[in-house]
Every structure is written in C-alpha cells, then in structure tokens.
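Duplicate of #3305? Posting structure anyway:
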C-alpha cells in the first residue's frame, strides 16, 4: 500500500527520468528494529526503495554501532517504528546535522507520520525545506545530550520524596515530590501528560515544569517561554536518577547539593511532520479508548 501510494503520487505529477535520476542520488539511513522491519508496511516501503534504486543503509537498533554512523554517508534519516524509535533517530539526526522523517503505525505514535501521507519524491524535490524545526532541552549547556521530549529527575527510594528547589528569573520555589519533569511542547503528550501536565501545541517552543506526585501545594504545571532558563537544585544525600527521553543518563546520591540548569537549545533539528496542528483527535481518541 505504501509503495502504491508513493508510485501513484509520482505518476500523477508527471515526473520524468531526469528528476528520477536526481532522487536516486539521495542516500537514506533507515533506523528501525528487527521487529518493525518485518512489518508489512516496512517491507513494502523498502521494496519501493529497492525498485526505484534509491540507496539506503539499515541501522538496526539492537546493534549499538548505529550510533557511530558518519553523517557523510547519508542526507536523510528515516525511522520506522514507534515513538521510541523516532526519538533515537532524532538524536542520531541531531548528532549528525541530518533531517529526520519518522514513519510508523503504532497504537499512539504521536511523533510518527503514516506511510500513506508521505511523498518521498516531493521531499527530495523540496530539499527538505518543508521540514519543521524541533528544539530540544539541554542540561548544563551540553549540546551533545539533547532531550526532545523531556528530562526527568526522579527518586530511586520507594519511601522517601525528593526535596527540590526550582529557580528561574531570579525567583525560587521549594518542592517536595517524587520527582520533576522538564518537558518540551513536543513532549507535552508524553510523561508530562501522564503526570497531569497540559498538552501544548508543538509549534510553541516552551519549557513545561510538572511535578511528579507532589506533597507540597504546587501548581500542576508551569509553562515558560523559549528564552527561559531553569535551575533545579536537589538537596544532598538524596538517591535519584536523571532520565533523558526515557533513558537513564546518570544516578545521583551525593553528600552535597546538586544543581542542574535547563534551557532550550539555540539550535534545532529538522523533522518532517504532516502539519503544525496538534494531533488532538489522534492522540485523545487513542488514549480514551
């Protein structure tokens, strides 16, 4: 179905052999898992690329060496899978300054596009100019470890809450909770939403601060603009971990207070999305089943 849809779109536009030769010069990186590559849509899509003699490499998630792929070998990354696969492909695209197209048919799949709505030929023709820019959160100005959905500080002890201080715009607020989520608008429908945070349209660059099971009286969330910088201080001798997009970055339990500074990066990643409209119907109809 994916192959037929893309082929029909090409025919309907009357694209000639000269244009096709330009398309074939594009080198793709296909990021996926062994499981997803066995799906019918993935098989049909790769068959279409083979038939059109479009060059690509498979970067299998189970093989960690995919993270060391050089940007000189491809100029578009395509993920095939769910949102987790999409986030891994986006980090690879960020590291190599390469645009990303996320394809999939997951149960929720808020970050992925359906195979049927994407015209690969038109993407190449446009030189990826219709890709949206997605800005991640960075911790302590480290551009090498971005988080496109959220960064989470969460307790490791089942019985003890974290004592946290939040500082922004020369103001500070104390919080006792199981943890705290610092989310982008793109990640507002992920952990942030599960913790009671708001859904924010993805075209709005913002930082969303949401506590996890707060003990003190604290707003459900605070939404800050793209110029904001947030400092999180966790008091000494507390056992907690720091997670980036669901992956643990570090374990902490220090005799001194620990502080982390969060802000949106000044750089952006090009990601193709069907539109800037929030997928409210898609998202809410799935989770409210």
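Output from current build:
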């Amino acid at each position: 179905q994916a192959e037929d849809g893309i082929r029909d779109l090409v025919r309907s536009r009357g694209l000639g052999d000269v244009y096709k030769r330009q398309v074939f010069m594009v080198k793709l990186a296909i990021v996926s898992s062994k499981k997803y590559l066995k799906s019918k849509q993935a098989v049909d899509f790769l068959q279409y690329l083979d038939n059109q003699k479009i060059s690509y490499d498979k970067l299998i998630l189970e093989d960690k060496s995919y993270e060391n792929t050089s940007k000189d070998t491809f100029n578009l990354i395509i993920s095939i899978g769910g949102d987790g696969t999409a986030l891994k492909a986006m980090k690879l695209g960020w590291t190599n300054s390469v645009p990303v197209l996320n394809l999939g048919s997951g149960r929720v799949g808020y970050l992925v596009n359906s195979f049927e709505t994407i015209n690969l030929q038109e993407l190449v023709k446009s030189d990826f100019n219709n890709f949206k820019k997605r800005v991640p959160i960075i911790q302590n100005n480290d551009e090498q470890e971005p988080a496109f959905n959220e960064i989470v500080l969460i307790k490791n002890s089942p019985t003890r809450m974290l004592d946290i201080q939040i500082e922004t715009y020369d103001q500070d607020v104390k919080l006792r909770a199981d943890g705290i989520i610092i989310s982008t608008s793109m990640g507002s429908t992920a952990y942030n939403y599960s913790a009671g945070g708001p859904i924010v349209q993805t075209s709005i660059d913002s930082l969303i601060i949401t506590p996890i099971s707060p003990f003190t009286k604290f707003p459900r969330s605070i939404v800050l603009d793209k110029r904001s910088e947030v400092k999180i201080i966790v008091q000494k001798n507390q056992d907690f971990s720091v997670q980036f997009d669901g992956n643990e970055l570090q374990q902490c339990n220090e005799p001194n207070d620990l502080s982390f500074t969060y802000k949106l990066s000044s750089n952006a990643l090009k990601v193709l999305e069907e539109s800037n409209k929030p997928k409210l119907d898609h998202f809410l109809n799935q989770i409210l089943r």
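Confirmed duplicate; merging threads. Residues 188 and 199 are 5 Å apart (CA to CA). Confidence is low (pLDDT under 50) at residues 8-24.
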